[in-house]
């Protein structure tokens, strides 16, 4: 029993002396995955703004429009030209007539009623009629391209959201002239982007695909898992640090951007990581040196209820 007690004391003492300090989480910042300041491709007067700050928007949603009366009128004119079929029908009728004349001329030439010159004239009339029909079709094709161009110019006077996100700022109002200024700012909040600054001692142990625990500095938010997507290939010589980027899922935009956080990596050594398991303590080895004591000596000198006996000198 005494041997077991002494061995337990030695084991506890060895464990206490070899325990490492608890890991410290790393500071990080939660940011929007994308931020875009939206403007107009053309100069004009704002006709309407359909969203306000804080509104959730979808990709392709119309956010604002400019005055477009002139562009719509150009579309109507181009559409009318593209739908005209009279020139094509007239050219087709001329071609049919030329073909009939050519057949009659060939028939009369075969019976020696007309000269070869009449046949050549009929053949030339057919070729001219064919070219006029092709010209009419080409003009209609150009009119359709002009219609596409007019519609494209109209679309430039509409501001749409480039991705799903939230409107974070509105810079202009209805009636103002748009030139180079932005109208709105939109941020993509799902997923979020987490930027972590790590010491150079962890370089090589952080790789894309690793999972980290993120704790936002906001009440009511628990630990959230984020995945490493990018790791810097160049270290900052001034601070001996490097950066890693993580992707943080954010369904329903529950977590706001711009929040500080703490990051912990489970599979890397050093700060912000879990402490590696310590080796089990073993009983001290017997030695003949006066500086070492065998296990039996420990039991003899530290037996409960007795005073330690002095060591006999030779």
SSE order in H/E notation?
HEEEEHHHEEEEEEEEH
Report mean pLDDT, rounded to a whole number.
83
Strand content: 25-35%
The proportion of residues forming helix, as a percent range, comes to: 25-40%
Alpha carbon gap, first and last residue: 32 Å
Number of helical regions? 5
Query: What low-confidence regions span 5 or more consecutive residues with pLDDT below 50?
Result: 16-20, 273-306
* Shape, principal axes of CA atoms: elongated
The radius of gyration computed from the alpha-carbon positions, rounded to a whole number of angstroms, is: 43 Å
- Number of strand segments: 12
Biggest sheet overview: 6 strands, antiparallel, barrel
SSE class: alpha+beta
| Strand order of the biggest β-sheet | 1-8-11-10-9-12
Organism: Parazoarcus communis
Signal peptide: 1-19
Region (Disordered): 268-314
InterPro entries: Beta-barrel_RND_2, BSH_CzcB-like, RND_pump_MFP
Task: Summarize the structure in words.
The protein has helices at residues 2-18, 69-82, 86-110, 116-155, 295-301, and strands at 26-38, 44-49, 56-57, 62-66, 158-160, 165-170, 177-178, 184-199, 211-216, 224-231, 241-248, 259-265. 17% of the residues are buried. The protein is built from five helices and twelve strands. A hairpin with a 7-residue loop joins strand 9 (211-216) and strand 10. Helix 2 packs antiparallel against helix 4 and helix 3 (86-110) runs antiparallel to helix 4. A six-stranded antiparallel β-barrel has the order 1-8-11-10-9-12. The longest helix is centred in the middle third of the chain and has 40 residues, at 116-155. It is α+β, with helices and mostly antiparallel strands and 314 residues long. The radius of gyration is 43 Å and the shape is elongated. The two termini are 32 Å apart.
